Amino acid sequence: MKTHTQTKNNNRERNNIALNQSRMPFVEALEAYKEEHFVPFHTPGHKIGVGAPATLKAWMDPALPYDLGVMYALDDLHEPEGSLKEAQDLAAQLYGADYTWFSINGTTALIETMIMGTVGAGDTIIIPREAHRSVMGGLILSGAKPVYLEGRFDERFGVPLGTTPSEVETVLNEHPEAKAIVLVNPNYYGIAIDLEAIVLLAHKKGVIVLVDEAHGAHLPFGKNLPKSALACGADLVAQSTHKLIGSLTQTSMLHGQDMLINERRITQVHQILQSTSPNYIFLASLDMARHQMATKGRELVTKAEMLAQELRRDLQNIPGINVPAAEDFNGLYDYDATKVLIDFYELGLTGVEAEKLLRKEGIEVELVQAYHVLVLITLGDTKDSIKRLVDAVSKVAANVKEFKQSSPQAKPLATGTRLPSPEVVLTPREAFYSKTETVALAEAAGQISGETISYYPPGIPFVSVGERITPAVLAYIKERQAMGFLPNGCADKTLKTIRIISK
Description:
Layout: H1 4-16, H2 25-35, H3 54-60, H4 83-95, E1 99-103, H5 106-116, E2 124-128, H6 133-142, E3 145-149, E4 152-154, E5 159-162, H7 165-174, E6 180-184, E7 191-192, H8 195-204, E8 208-212, E9 236-239, H9 241-244, E10 252-256, H10 263-273, H11 280-316, E11 334-335, E12 339-343, H12 351-360, E13 367-368, E14 372-376, H13 383-398, H14 400-406, H15 428-432, E15 436-440, E16 453-455, E17 460-463, H16 471-482, E18 487-488, E19 497-501
């Protein structure tokens, strides 16, 4: 019987055969096809751009001949055998995986793939409290039963700090029936957990480790970044290639390592959750992004790290602005410093107010929370973009007194942002297909939610379908409403009413 190490070595040897990281096989195949100048009698209807709307032509004219569907002469995302398979194999080789699957339906589809490919109806799966709403989608589709890791939370900055090996060990011991565990690493704020230790604990019990690494496609290429999930031994890892490196929005990669996963099962689920008409430009952008990281990744990510440190230093010098570093979070394991939290607490500004003021200065941020905004520093940033952000924050800070005096939104800051602890009553799938009714939010305490509701971003549900609507949930809603946040996923966008499971 082959050991895991032997199997991985065999796969590595297979992936190394005739693979050249300086090539872009799928891009090359598209280019070659374009140069053959076939007369198209196939989809898409715009026929290589000839019939495209004028505005679309103005935007994308050079790209339209590459906007192809499933072509006999090219490869198929669902069963790749040629240039696309080679592109995926190159990505696997670069990231240290045994298998890689491309996604044109984002990381959402890949997280659902990981869950559906490893657990089924009635199976127990352990998930973190800070799991993205796509995890709930995977639970509804699979029928699995969630058990939550509560995790740690920094009250000062309103930031989740993730779980610990000891918490995971406790939950694994309490739920020996668990088949898989989902972990977020790093989280939205760049905070990483001791993933390697957790993987060892899980694997000792035969539990499959699934990692949402949406914010970590750049990790292997940095100098001072957390260790990647694959390097920590995770079994399946979903990455948003578009978020922090150079592919098009909506494109992602799923990486897998042999041992506990069934590669063919993952492929079959992946087929279900990907469009049967995958956009070839999207797929080509993944090949391009892999090539960029293979040839220039270390240079580009190192530059981003340096710019982030420069930004942190300059922002910290602005009176009233706080930019926490790793040492400012209690008991932090590791940290991606390219995620920069800009805290306005000392200025008396909520995150919502700060975001609006920054937009007036031409700055668009990634995330808005209680007292802060979050910005991402990536390979697309320059000294000029950093300077513009620093200048904008400086101006906001200098004018904040005048703003607070004149703003109708001026109000005391909320006292906390911790997500309520979930109380699972029904599996998400059971609840999703149950009959529901509408009740006034004020009368919903104790009822079972018939909706999954979050604030987006970050898209973490504060109550999910099948969970008890506790007083803590109601308090969280009230707090967020007072701060000007708009909910996502509920039938009533005002949240004056809520859907509950009918008795």
